[in-house]
Amino acid sequence: MSKFVTGTELTGEHAAKIARTLDALRDVPSLRARYDGVAPPATLAELEAVPQMDKNDLQVALSHRPPRAAHGATWVFQSGGSTGAPQVGYAPTGLYMSRVYEQWKALTPDDVFVNGWSAGKMWGAHFLVNAYVDHARCVAMNLGAMVKEEYDPWLEFFANRKVTAFGGTPSVLRLVFGHAREAGVKLPDLRKVLFLGEAWDPQLDEDLAIVAPNARRWGMFGSTETWVVATNTPECAADTWHPIPTQLVHVGDDEMLDFTCLADDVLNPVLRYRTGDAGRVVACPCGHDGPAVQVLGRRDNLIKFRGHLVNVPDLVADLAAQPGVARAQLVVHEPADGGSVLEVLLLTTADASPRVAEDVRGHIVGSGFGPSIVFQRNPQSLQVRVVDALHGNARTGKIPDLVRR
User: In percent, how much of the chain has pLDDT > 70?
Assistant: First the structure.
């Protein structure tokens, strides 16, 4: 049975916002037929009859009429992408963080916080968290990404500066705190670990228990298209989330989630928008009276690799189009001690250059989009090799684009 999960009732103001979003979608020639006969919903039951959107629909709508903020700057951020052009999302100055702070007090004025999300390349998380910090009024340090050789001096710096909070994607956090554990580093002042961009890695609980036994996790859930949809606290399960009042989450009969942004200042026309995440309505162990949704993970063609979305079919098709490549396959190795590795396997043509593996690696790393920055900073996380056969099902003969190890 499908359900809506929302932190608020559907008010007249929300209904007016949805009506304006419908008008914007009808204005897009390729979407007009889908929405022409759809009346503006006044109730949740009526909203359930509105057609759903996918990522392509949203990108078409944004390309047709790029939004502009009524006040301040209009920020453009990217999401997804492999070696092709990224998808984009828009947000006004402030990145909607005032309403996130109203619900989620992860940081307070007495915190010393390190922002460990990667900056630049039109990625949103680093800047989103900075906007949140403005409301928390704490001491903040914009560290960004670290390479392995920098862990020891920075960990010493964190200890000396009595850092109380650290944030990043769980794959980055796993590398940092896993190294700290192996090196015997202690961070007794660290009380909070903020995460966004990936599911929480349970191995972090074991590492933090040794490195920073006073630290507890605080999470945000969302996307560049929806922005922050929901939050959780240390009292919540790591995969369970409470929606922001201006975000409406719908759980379909197939457990697929779709999102509707209700705030008047939201720039992306997000209406019944499917990101590919699955979930279910649950009672959160924190005991909060409001609704909660357990996020079960992605069920589309996108995977998260070290905090970056990779469109598997797009990347495989792009690699297969390179000179000398007959077919490509991705193998993601996820060892228990962290440090995921993406292995690219290549079947080559008869006229392939002896350097085909090196050329393909250069093509991936040289891209301006997608996970290329991960491989530039962590060269060991990408392996490319020529093989005689790809992984497949011996009985059916089917060869998947993606294999997990």
Answer: 95
Q: Is the dihedral of CA 40, 44, 47, 52 positive or negative?
A: positive
Provide the token pair at 118.
């990667």
d(CA 378, CA 381): 6
CB 173 within 8 A of CB 211: no
Residue 172: name the closest of 359, 373, 326, 32 by CA: 373
Number of other residues whose CB lies within 10 A of the CB of residue 25 = 24
Residue whose C-alpha is closest to residue 286's, from 217, 240, 218, 219 = 240
Per the DSSP assignment, residues forming a β-bridge with 129 are none
- Quick one: tokens of 324? 């000398």
What is the pTM for the complete model shown?
Answer: 0.84
Contact 258, 244 (CB under 8 A): no
Q: By the 8 A CB rule, do 113 and 138 touch?
A: yes
* Backbone phi and psi for residue 48, each to the nearest 5 degrees, phi listed first: -65, -20
The pLDDT tens digits of the residues spanning 240-299 come to 999 999 999 999 999 999 999 999 999 999 999 999 999 999 999 999 887 899 999 888
Task: Give the start-to-end residue ranges of the domains of the chain.
Answer: 76-300, 303-404
CATH architecture of 303-404: 2-Layer Sandwich (3.30)
Cα Rg of the chain, angstroms: 22
Q: Which residues contact 250 (CB under 8 A, 6 or more apart)?
A: 2, 3, 4, 5, 47, 48, 257, 258, 259, 260, 272
Output the six-digit token pair for 246. 């201006």
Question: Measured between alpha carbons, how far is residue 338 from residues 120, 187, 204, 220, 226 in Å?
Answer: 25, 20, 10, 22, 29
| Nearest C-alpha neighbor of 136 from the set 102, 187, 164 | 102
Reduce the DSSP state of residue 267 to 3 states and report it. coil
In eight-state DSSP terms, residue 379 is G
What residues in the chain have per-residue pLDDT under 50? Answer: none
Q: Which amino acid is at 184?
A: G
76-300 adopts what CATH topology?
Rossmann fold (3.40.50)
pLDDT recorded at residue 84: 57
Cβ atoms < 10 Å from Cβ of 156:
12
CA distances (Å), origin 109, targets 139, 318, 345: 7, 48, 50
pLDDT at residue 87, rounded to an integer:
84
Tokens, residue 333 = 């190795």
Element (H, E) at 141: strand 139-142
Phi, psi dihedral angles at 254 (to 5 degrees): -90, 10
Residue type for position 403: V
